[in-house]
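Hi V.,

You were right to ask for the full record rather than a summary. Here it is.
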Amino acid sequence: QLKLVESGGGLVQPGGSLRLSCAASGFTLNTYAIGWFRQAPGKEREGVLCIRNSGGSTAYADSVKGRFTISVDNAKNTVYLQMNSLKPEDTAVYYCAAVRSPCSGYVSEYPYWGQGTRVTVSP
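Predicted structure:
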């Protein structure tokens, strides 16, 4: 059974950093693309970054370019989202999701989702 579990969220001050983890089980990451999404209070879920099974990545949120990076550790079957220079507007529940096709920024393209991890950026 394919499963994704996010971790690493928490409370951080503006300008701080967090690294989120997405641990996969039931499949190997090199056969899927993994996307990170986020949903802020009262807003729709939006795509943040995606990493392809080839290792390339695509950013879908202009606001995170230059601050967030995505990486994969195939030995641990885990994808990471490194978030630097965090801003209050980054506050959201962050989800990872898997799709057996090229990366997409559309929620509807992903059949497999984790439960989410909450990130709060506040003084």
